[in-house]
Amino acid sequence: MDRFVYLLLCFIPAFLPAQSPEAIWGKRLSVSNPIFSFGKNLAIVDMDYDADGFLYAVGFNRATLLDGGSPVHGPYSGAQTGFVLKMDTDGEILWHRRLTMGVMKALDVEGGALYVAGDVASAEYGPLQLEADGTGTVTTIFANGYYDGFVARYSLAGELSWARTFGGADDDDVFEKGDRIEDLAVSSSGQVYITGSYFKQFRVAGELVFEETSDRGKTFFLAALDGAGALVWARDIKSPLPTDGGNAEGLHLAATAQGAAVAIAYSPGGLLINGEILLNDNGGGDRGALLAHYSTAGSLLWHRNLEPELGLMVPLGLGTASDGQIVVAFAHERQVLIDEAEELEYLQQEDGLLKTGLAAFNGSGQLLWAKSIFASDASISVHPDGDIFLGAAAFRTGVQLGNGIALDFPGDGAVSLWARFSKGGEALWAHRPGLLAAAPFSTNHFVLASLDKQLYAAANFNTTLDFGGNIILDNGYESPDFDAFYVVRIDDSNLNALPLATVQPLSVYPNPARGAVWADLPEGMALRLYRLDGQLVWAGQALAGHQRLEFGPQVPGLYFLKGQGQSGAYLQPLSLVR
């Protein structure tokens, strides 16, 4: 067989057209009296599921919460109401509990219990009133200062077991400095990990744990609690700067077999770790991220520094697989250095906008792969077998996901996208809802993959969306000026049984070519140029028709030009000469 034809056949499986997963059900949550403030009327901030597949969600609403137009609970009162609810596998709400005047942050289901974490802001909102069961009984807790963190434990039937606050009294009301819990994770043994930041003092049950004499607003902490909410141990990492230039906060947690992994955001002032100063010194980056792994006893096992070339970096999510692999997602503007040695693989050309980085490490902290997806406002969920599910917003006309998979988007607004990646970081599929009206907008994305790889996807939206499977949702208002919240359940198990699709040729000339070709394209498509070894050397978008493609200077040799359109995949061998 001709060598070139053989290589072409070897490339075809990697360039099959992306298939669409199937939506099983979808629901719209909205509020009775919305305000013009996208993402502020209501949101689900975290979800999890139990051993029977029931779904739990924590979030907030600013008016009466509506499920498909019907009130979920009784009359609403107050500026902001947190909630915890349970849904069955068909999306029906089984119970709902109010957590009035608190700021909801995280939820985890483990060992037959439901744990919720967030903030109590007594000075701003008043005390936190937690609905203890379905009878209207309320438990009230107060912050010691301006802001305190809280953790509450519920049974899976919605009965409150206990609630604890964490923080000190020396807060700064004027500059809104206090103690905050940003995330929690519960291990299979029942150890509860919490992370966030503290100001001046961090107290548990009135006992002083940490004290910081500087005036910096945020000092990172990680703490382990037992099943009753009592402190087991706590660790903090401080900055060498005494001002807000030395802020650091834990944003995301994941329980591991060895302990807990935590994603930390820190300011340019750096961090003091083991007596040494770790700095974000990669050019003009003004905020770095640190991935740290702690043992069950609180020992720092290893840490990895992620530095932006320019601008900020914010951890967006964290997940672990059963073999110990850890995946961290983060927002970034420019190229990122990992421990000043490795860079992200870019799937598109730099555009200076916020994008989502994904980096995978083994249990010992060795970097396995890292890449940048040109979408933002992202959430990830890592399945125990290592597959990674992504939900995000596209602020671009096209997003490349890798492995020959791409999505096209309208030029204006922000549209949801979902994708699944293998443990090795290869894109398996990507999908977005169909748009049936103008002015698309989506934010506050969240995804959760169940054990059977059903994907729960959620986000705010303001226009009619077609999720497939005859599931069409509108925002429930007469105007796109207000946003609702969708929750859909997506099944991609059917993708494994789909037949191989035909890869179509492209009309490209001249061939051989010198840096540029003319192409007669049957449809608009994403285009990518690969070397024979599979390395991507050029990517672009093109409209249908007679188009000129300029590849720039390339090493002479044989290449593959791959196209991805709505009708499928295209592949054309191409020879480039000087």
Automatic annotation (TrEMBL):
Kindly give the Gene3D superfamilies that the UniProt entry links to this protein.
YVTN repeat-like/Quinoprotein amine dehydrogenase
User: What SUPFAM superfamilies does this protein's entry cite?
Assistant: NHL repeat
Matching entries from InterPro entries are given as: Motility_Chemotaxis_Reg (IPR052918), WD40/YVTN_repeat-like_dom_sf (IPR015943)
- Superkingdom: Bacteria
- Kindly provide the name given to this protein in its UniProt entry: T9SS type A sorting domain-containing protein
User: Which lineage?
Assistant: Bacteria, Pseudomonadati, Bacteroidota, Saprospiria, Saprospirales
